[in-house]
Amino acid sequence: MMELINPLLLAVILINFYTLGSARLVACIRVVAIQGALLALLPLLSHGMTFHAMLLAAEAFCFKGVVIPWLLLRAIRRVRIRREMEPIVGFVPTLILGVLTTVGAFLFADLLPLAPEHHDGMFVPTALATMFSGFLLLITRRKAITQILGYLMLENGIFIFAVLLSAAMPVMVEAGILLDLLVGVFVMGIVVNQISREFSTINTERLTALKE
Amino acid sequence: MIIRLILHLALLLLFAPMLNGIIIKTKALFGGRIGAPLLQSYYDLARLWRKGFVFSRTTTWVFLAGPVVGLTVPLLASLLIPFGALPAPISFEGDLILFVYLFALSRFFTVASALDTGSSFEGMGAAREVTFSCLAEPTLLFVLLVLARLSDGLSLDTLLGSHLLTAWHSDAGASLGLILVCLFLVLLVENSRIPFDDPNTHLELTMIHEVMVLDHSGPALGMILYGAALKMMVMGALLVRLAFPWQTGWWLSDALMFLAGLAGLAVLIGVVESIMARLRLPRVPQVLVGTMLLSIFALVLVLR
Amino acid sequence: MIWLLSGIVLTSFAGVPGLFCNRESLRGERLACILTLTGAVCGLIAVALVLNSGGETYLDLPWSIPGGTLALRLDPLAAVFMLPLFLVVATGSVYGLRYWPQRENPGNGRKLRLFYGLISGAIMLVLTARNGMLFLMAWEVMALSGFFLITTEENKEEARRAGYIYLIATHTGTLALFALFAMLDHTSGSLIFPGAGTLPAAGSGLMFLLGLFGFGMKAGLMPLHIWLPGAHAAAPSHASALLSGVMIKTGIYGLVRFTSFFAEIPAWWGWTLLLLGAISGILGVALAIAQHDIKRLLAYHSVENIGIIALGFGLALLGRSYEQPALMILGLSGCLLHVVNHGLFKSLLFLSAGSVIHAVGTREIDQLGGVLKRQPWTGALFLGAAVAISGLPPFNGFISEWLIYLGALQPLKHPTSALGLAVLTAPALALIGALALACFVKVFGIVFLGEARSKAAVQAHEAPLSMLVPMALLLVACAWIGLLPTTLVPLLRGAVENWAGIDGGTMLGGSFAPLGWVSLIGWLLLALLAAVGLWLSRISRKVPRAIGTWGCGFQFSAPRMQYTASSFADFLVRLFHFGLWSERHGGKVTGLLPGVTRFSSHTPDTVLDRVLFPIFLGAAWLCRLLRACIHNGVIAFYLLYIALTVIVLLALFIL
Amino acid sequence: MLLLLILFPLAVALLALLLPWYQARSWLLPVSGGLHLCLAGICVAGSDYASSPWIGLDALSRLVLIVTSLLYAGCAVYAVGYLNLRRDRGNETIVPCLLVFLSAMTLAIAARHLGLLWMAVETTTLASAPLIYYNRNRLSIEATWKYLLLCSVGIALALLGILFIAYAALVGGDMPISLQLDTLLANASQLSRPWLHAGFVFLLVGFGTKMGLAPLHSWKPDAYGEAPGMVGALLAGGLTSVAFLAILRAVQLMTAAGDGAMARQALLGMGLLSLLLAAIFMVRQPDIKRLLAYSSVEHMGILAIGVGIGGLATFGAMLHLVNNALTKGCLFLSAGNIQRAYDSKRLSKVHGALATLPISGGVFLAGFLAITGSPPFGLFMSEFTILRGIFGNGQFWIGLLMILLLAMVFIGMGATVLTATQGEPVKLESAYKDSFLLVISPLLFLLMVLLLGVYLPEPLQRALREAAALLEVQP
Question: pTM of the predicted model, to two decimals?
Fold first, then answer.
C-alpha cells in the first residue's frame, strides 16, 4: 500500500498546478474535489484499515470531496460565473510561481528531520507545496469563490501533514480540523452570498473600498 | 572718602560742559571762524534754566522721566570711574557691569521719553538709538574684557589702575591700541558725534539723538544737555585714563593732567568732526560691526 | 512636611469645588481663590521652615507601584523654584477673579480654575518629588494641565493649534524623560533620586542629551522653544504668567537637579548649554523684537530669559568641570536668581499686558497707544517690569545678570586654554541685554505712550483694584530683590550646596560678589531719581499741556503717523535678517504720484514655521503615500504580507 | 467550575435564541457578563491550577481571564444602551453571537491543550464575524470578508504550527506525543528543534494575525472601523489578549526548550515593526475608529516588545495587557458614542465632541491621553516599566527607537483626536444623547486605568509577577 502513496501525492501536486493554471471555475472546483477525494485515501494508505483511519477518510471524503465542492458549485451557479477573469497575476506567471514554490517546498523539507517511518514518503514537501499553492491562489485571484478554493487547498495541505500524525494524535483534533474547515467555508459561503446580494457580483475587486 | 567724593563730583559737574565748548571752538577754528566762547555751554544751560516748560498734550510723566534719568545716571556712574589717577570714590568687584547698565537705564528712559511725544520723528530717532547701541554695547563689553584680562580685579578702578603703563609696553600694547580706537568710536556713537550723528543740525531726518529731545524745553532740555555733557565726560574719563595711564601721586597734578587729557580728547573730537562727513545711515551699523570685530580681535590677542 | 503636603493638596484641588457650583455662581471662583491662597501660604510656611532650619524636610512612604515610593524632599534648591511659584500662583488667582470671571465665561471658567489649581499643585510636586516615577507623574499632570490652560478658549482655531503644538512638544519631551529615568534607574539601581555627586560620569552622555531634550523642551531652550510663543499667546494672561513664569522653569529645575547627581561633569555639557543659551538668548530676543502681538512678544522673551538662565547654568557646569568653585557659585547663583526674577517680572508683564488686553480687547501692539493715560497704574507697573526684565538697575533683573556677568568674567582670572572662551558669555549677554532693552522700550513706548492708534484704545479703562494689587505685589518683590539682594544670599548658598554637594557657597555676597555695594548703588540711584524727579515735577506742575507735539512743521499729524511697533523694530529686524527671515509684503512705491499702498511685515518662528513645519508636512505626505501603498484595500496584498512574513521568519529560524 | 464558566454562556445563547422579547434579550448580556465576571473572579481567586488535562488556569490565563471578563461585563452593559439605539437592526443575531464569543474566549483562555486552544480561537473568529457584519452594509460586508479570510488563513497556519510541534514530539522520540501543554513543557528539551522552530513560526504568524501584529494586521482597521463600538472594544481588548496568550504559550514552549532568546528576537522585531507601521498609519488619519485600530496594532507591538525583551519588561508587558484592554474598552465605547451622535466617524464631520458630548468626548480625550502613555494613567506605568526593562538590559538603541516611534504615534494620534474633540459645539442631527448605560462603562474603565496608574494592589502585582515568571527561562 505504501508504494501507492507517492504517486498519489504526485497527483495532488499536479492538481495544484492545474488549479493554478486554469481559468475555468467549475473545472477548478471539480479538480479540488478530486484532490479532496484522493486525500481521503491517504490515511488508509499510510495507516492501513484501522478504525481511526477509516473515520478520517470518510470524513475527508464527505467534506472535502463532496459537500464543500457541491456548496461552491451551487454558489457559482447562482451567481452565474464561469471563468476567473483578469486575475491579479496572470495564469502563466502563477503557474511558474507555483512550480517555484513547489521546488522551494521540496528543498525546505530537506532541512527538516523526519521520523524514521516517514523517510521515503514525500508527505512534508507535498503538504507545504499544496499549502503554498493554496496561498498563491488566494493571492493572485480576484473572485471570492477562487479564494475559497485557495483556502480549501491550504487546508488540504495541512491535512496531508496531519495524516502523518493521525496515529499519534487523538481523533478529536482531526475531527476539529474537518469541522472547522466546514464551518469556515460554510460561513464564508454565507458571506459570499451576502456579497453577491449586496454587489451582485462576487468579484473581490469591488471589495476595496476600505483602504487608506 | 568724603573729600574724594566731593572733588570727584566737583570736577565732573564743573568741567563737563566745557568739553562741548572746546569741541565747538575747535570746529570753529577749523572753519576759520572765531566761534563761540569756550563757556558758551554754561551760558546756554543757564539760559535754559530760567525758561519755562512747554509740554505737548500727548505727553505724560514719562516725558519728564527722560531728563531726570539722563541727568542722574552719569552722575552716579561717574562715582564708579577713576578720573585719571584719582581713584573712583566707589569701587567694588563687578562695578564695570553696573557702569554699563546704568547708561542702559538712561537710554531706556530717554527713548521712552521720546516715544511719549507720539511724534513720528522722535520715534525714528528712538529706533535708531536703540539699534546702534545694540551694536555698541557688546563692543564696550569686549573692551572691558580686554582690560579685565590685563588686570587682576573686576572693578573699574583696578581695570584702569597703574598697571596700564606697563601693559602698554608689553605684548598687550597692540590690544590696548585697538581697544582705544574701539572705545573712541563707541564714545562717538554714545555721545552722538559725527560721523555717526550730527549734534548741530536740528529737524533732520537722519539724526539720532537730537531728534529724540526735540520736544523738550526749558530746564528739562537743560538737564538733558547737561546730562549729555556729563556722560561725555564720564565716557571720556575711561578713554583718557586708558590713553594716559601716568600718575604723579599728588592729587592736584593728577586732576590737572586728567583735565588736560579730557581737553585733548575734546580737541580730537573736534578735529574728527571737522574733517569728516556724517556717515550714511545704512553705513553706521557696518562701521559698528567692524568696531566690534576689532575689539574681538583685541580680546583674542590678549587671551591667546 | 505637613505644611507642604497641605499646600500641594489645597492648590491642586482648588478648582474642584467649583465644578459642583452653578455655572454662573461666584462661589466656586471665590472658593478656588481662597483655597489657592491658603495652599500658597501653607507652602510658603513649609519653605520658610526649611530655610529657617537650614536643612531639608522629607517624606518617604511606600507606594504600591513597581519601582515607586512616595519620596518627597524639600531642600533649598527646590525652595528657590518654589518661592516665585507661590507668589505667582497667589497673585494670579486673585487677578483671575476679575480678569476671567465665571460670570462672563460660563463655558470655560471652571475648567480654567480646575487646571490652574492642578498645575500649581503638580509643579510643587515636581519640585519636591525624589522618585522618578512620582516625578514623571507630577511632570505629566503639570504638562497636561498646561495643555488645558492653553486651550481654555478651545473654540478658537489659534488656541487649538497652539495647544496641539504644545501637547506634542511636551509629550515628546516627556518621552525623552522616560528614557532618561529608565537609564538613571539602570545606572543607579533604583528610581529614587541619587544624592548629589554620587553617580559616575561614565556613559552619562546619552543621559545628558536626553535630559537636555526633555527638560529643554519644557524650558523652551532654542531650538526646542517651538511650542512656547503660540501657547503663551493663547492662554489667558494669568495662566500665561504661570506657564511662562513658573512652569517652564521646571525644565531648568530638571536640568539642575539631574546634573547634580553626577560626581564629575564632562566639559561639553557646559559648552553645549552655553551655546544653546546664547542662541536662545540672542535669537529669542531678536524674534521678540520682530513680533507685534504683545503676548507672543512676551513669550519670545521667555525664550530669551531661558537663554540667560542657561548661560548661567552653563557657566556653573563649566565651573564644576574645570574645578573652579567661584565660576560655579556665581553661575549657579545667577542662574537660580534669574529663575526667580524671571518668574516675578514675566508674570507681572503678562498680568499687566492682560490688563491692557482686557481693557482694549486686542493683543496687536500696533492697535494700541497712549494707554498710560487711561491706565496709569497698569502702565507704571508694566514700566517697572520692563525695566526689570531689561536687566536694568535698580530692579532684580540686573542682580541676576550681574552675577552671571561676574561668573563669565571669572575665567579671565584663571586663564586655562579652553575655559577662556567662556568669557564670550559676557558680550553675548550684553547683546541680549541691549536687544531686550530695545524691545521693551518699544513695547512700553508703543503701547502706553503716544496717541491711541485705535478707537478701542481710546476707550480703555483702568483695571480694578483686585487686579492691580496682585501686580503691585509682584513689582514690590522685583524691587525687593533688586534693592535688598543680600536677603536672598542664604537661600542661594543653600541651593548651591545642594547642587554641588559641597560647602562652598559661603563666598557669595562677600568681596567677590559684593551684593551690598550693588544694593547701595541701587538705593542711591533711587534716592537721586526721586529727588530730581520730585523737584522737576514740582516746578513743572502748573504748566498746561495744551499744545500738540511739534510735527517738524507738518500741521496735520495724526495718531496713525506715529512710529509703530513694526517700524520701530524694522532696523533691528533687518540687521537680524539672517536668523529671522521676516516676510515683508507690499510697500513698494512706484510712479510719480503713488497711489494707496499697503505694507505689512510678519516674522514667523524660525524653527517651527521654517524648518519643522515643512519637514512634518513632507513626512505626513510620505506617510500617506506609504500607507496608500501598503493598505490598498486589495486583500491579495494582505495575504501576500502574511506569506512573506512566514517565509522571512522561516528563513531566519531554520536557515 | 471552569467548565461552568465556559458552558453557561452557551446556554444563555440558546436562551437568547428562544426569547421573543427584544429588551429581555438585550439584558441577557449584562446579566451573563456580570455572572461571568463573578464566576471568573471565583476561579481566579481559587487555587485549582489545572482541573483537567484539557482546561485549567495558570497565572497567565488567570490574568487574561479576569481582564477579558471585566471588559466583557463593561461592554455588555454598554450593549444594552447601544442595542436600544439600534432597534431597527434587531438583536436576534448579535446577542447569541456575543455570548458564543464569550464562551469561546473563555475556552481559549482556559485551554491547556494546544488543539483545544486552536479550536477555541477559531470559534472566536467565526462567532465574531456576524458581530462585524452587524451594520449590514457594503463596507461592513467587505470588512467581514477580509476579517474572515485573513483570520482563517492565519488560523490555518497556526494549525500547521501545532501539527509541526506535535511532529517535533514525534521526531524527538522519548516522549508521549501529546499536545497537552504541561506534557509538552515538561518534555520540551526533547522536541526536535527544526520542527519546533518551524512550528513556532507558524504559531506566531497564525496567532499573530489574530492578534494584529504588523504586517499581519491588515484586517484590523477595516474590521474595527466597521464593527459597532463595543465589538471593537471586545476585539481590541479581549480577543487580542487571547491571541497574545496563545503566542505566549508558544513562547513558553520555546523557552522551556531553551530557545527562548530566538522567540524573543522574533517578537521584538515584529513589535518594533508594528510600532513603526502604526505610527505611519496614524499620521493624519481621518477616521477615529481606524485610528483606534492602529493604536491597537501599536499596543500589540508594545506587548511583543515587552515580552521580547524579557525580565522586567515582561512584567511591564503583563501590566500593559491589563491596561491596554481596559483603555481600549474605554476608547472604543466612547468613540462608538461619538460615531452614533455625529452619524459619522470621520473628521470631516466629527469635531467639537468635547463641547457637544461632554462625557463621551471627555472620556475619549482622556482615553487618548491614557493610551498614549501619559502619566498618571496605567499605561504610563506599564510602558515605563517596559522601557526600564529595555534600558536595564542595556539595549539603549531599541529603547530610543521605541521612544521615537511612540512620539510619532502621539503626534499622529493627537492631531486626529484633538480635531475630533476640540472646537465649537455642533448641532447634532441624530437623536443621540449620552445616557447612563452608554457612558458608565467607558467611565469605569477610565477610572480603573487611572487607578492602576497610581496604585497597583499587592495581589495584582503578585499575579503579574507570577505571570511574567511563567515566561522566564525555567531551570
Answer: 0.92
**Per-residue pLDDT at B304 exceeds 80:** no
Chain A neighbors of C640, CB-CB under 8 A: 139
Give per-residue pLDDT as tens, C134-167.
999 999 999 999 999 999 888 888 899 999 999 9
Tell me which amino acid residue C188 is. Answer: S
Listed residue (B47, C188, B273) closest to D391, CA to CA: C188
What whole-number distance in Å separates Cα of residue C58 and Cα of residue C72?
A: 5
D391:C626 CB<8 A: no
Exposure string of B35-47, with b = 16+ CB inside 10 Å and e = fewer, is: beeeebbbebbee
> Considering the domain boundaries, does residue A129 fall inside one?
yes
Residue A172 distance to chain D (closest CA, Å): 9
Residue A210 lies in a domain: no
CB distance B110 to B212 below 8 Å: yes
Beta strands in chain A (DSSP E): none
Q: How many whole angstroms separate alpha carbon D471 and alpha carbon D302?
A: 16
Asked if residue D121 lies in contact with residue D41, where contact means CB atoms within 8 angstroms, the answer is: no
Q: Which three cell numbers stand for residue D218?
A: 491588515
**Residue A44 grid coordinates:** 488508509
CB atoms within 10 A of CB B236: 26
Q: Is A200 on the interface with D (CB under 8 A)?
A: no
Residue A76 banded pLDDT, cuts 50, 70, 90? confident
Cβ distance of D171 and A207 shorter than 8 Å: no
Half-sphere exposure at residue B247, Cβ-oriented, CA atoms within 13 angstroms = 19
Contact C529 B112 (CB under 8 A): no
Cis peptide bond N-terminal to A43, omega within 30: no
Q: How many angstroms separate the most distant Cα atoms in chain D?
A: 72
C364 by DSSP, 3-state: which? Answer: strand
User: In Å, how far is A170's CA from the nearest CA of chain C?
Assistant: 28
End-to-end Cα separation, chain D, in angstroms: 32
Q: Low-confidence residues of chain C, pLDDT below 50?
A: none
CA distance B118 to B278: 27
Instruction: Give yes or no for C650 touching D (CB within 8 A).
Output: yes
Q: Where are the domains of chain B?
A: 2-303
Residues 604-633 of C with CB under 8 A from A: 624, 627-628, 630-633
Let me know if residue A145 belongs to a domain: yes
> Helices D138-172 & D219-226, crossing angle to 10 degrees?
130
CA distance B152 to B154: 7
CB atoms within 10 A of CB D183: 17
Strand partners, D317: none
Rounded to 5°, angle at Cα B103 from B98 and B105: 90
Residue of B nearest to C416 (CA): B303
Q: Nearest CA to CA, how far is D26 from chain C (Å)? A: 35
Interchain touch A–C (≥3 Cβ pairs closer than 8 Å): yes
Report ipTM for this prediction.
0.90
**Could you give the angle at the alpha carbon of D378 between the alpha carbons of D377 and D380, nearest 5°?**
75
What is the rounded (10 degree) CA torsion for D394, D396, D399, D405? -160
The domain tally of chain A equals 1
Tell me the residue type at B87. P
Tell which residue, A132, A154, A147, has the closest CA to residue A76.
A147
How near does any CA of chain C get to the CA of D82, in Å? 29
- In this structure, what C-alpha cell is assigned to residue C262? 553626577
pLDDT higher than threshold 50 for residue D475: no
Rounded-to-integer distance, Cα C346 and Cα C343, Å = 6
**C-alpha dihedral over B254, B259, B262, B267, to 10 degrees?**
-130
Half-sphere exposure (CA, 13 Å, Cβ side) for A55? Answer: 13
Among chain A residues, the shortest Cα distance to D129 is held by A187
Owning domain of residue A109 = 2-205
* Residue ranges covered by each domain of chain C: 265-534+562-584+600-604, 607-654
